[in-house]
Amino acid sequence: MDDRRFGFLDLLAQISQLVVVVILVFAPLAAAPYITSRLDRAGLPGALFAGLFIGLGPTLAILSLRKERASRRRSRAMRRAALDLGLHFAPGFRLPRSMRDLPSLAGVEILGSPRGWTIQRGYADLISGSVDGTEILVFDYWVKSDGAYAQTRWHTLAAARIGDEGRALLVEPRDIGSWVPATGLHEVTTESAAFSKRYRVRTKDPKFTSAFLDGRMIEFLLELSDPWTFEVGDSWLAVTAHQIPTQRISQLIETLQAFRRHVPRVIASMYPEPGPTFV
User: Fold this and answer.
1) Of the N and C termini of the chain, which has fewer Cβ atoms inside 10 Å?
2) Residue 245 CB burial class (10 angstroms; 0-12, 13-18, ≥19)
């Protein structure tokens, strides 16, 4: 995205946010006399309720502004990272449908979790392009669970295509918990006690997982110091981090490339032709 278009879209976002703030501030003021008179006639303290209503507007406006400013700062930082890496940037985008086979991106925007909660998801700020001959996608996405004290968790995901067909596999660090419902996946263990202690492995195909997590792959994942999540879904490999500073985007891409290089070649022979082109 060129500077002129990005600047225009950023200006539109700021204008839209200003309109929302004006509405939140002035709509309660305009409605206050009507609310006061109606409540007074009903024998209720109209002035008190009107005062609370008027105070609510500016409070919501301030919260909205803080959230929007943080979002714009992140978009600008992601854009600078894309330029530094010689890649493309887009603040809004649609995921390829096949990426929804990655366990952490399953579904569209809403998933039902095994606990009966609802997981809401959104995506923003895409970095894309070729790195050492491999097409890479990097973007932020958020996950929010419904509940009285629900929090929004932001993550940064880097993904690359691996072939024509893979199996759903999720490898998560145990010490950070799980934000992925991964409905339909079953937890399995590996022959490495150290690996099983550090990572939780969930999959739809234990045979695929056993072949994928060979000794070389396990050794590679154990050597990593960052608590990042690794996954396979359909024709994609992905590495996910809790939203990281944009200065570490290059490291995330390097880790994805190394993850891709460690995929066992035997995986290709497990599928009928045409099989995945793992390298």
Assistant:
1) C
2) exposed
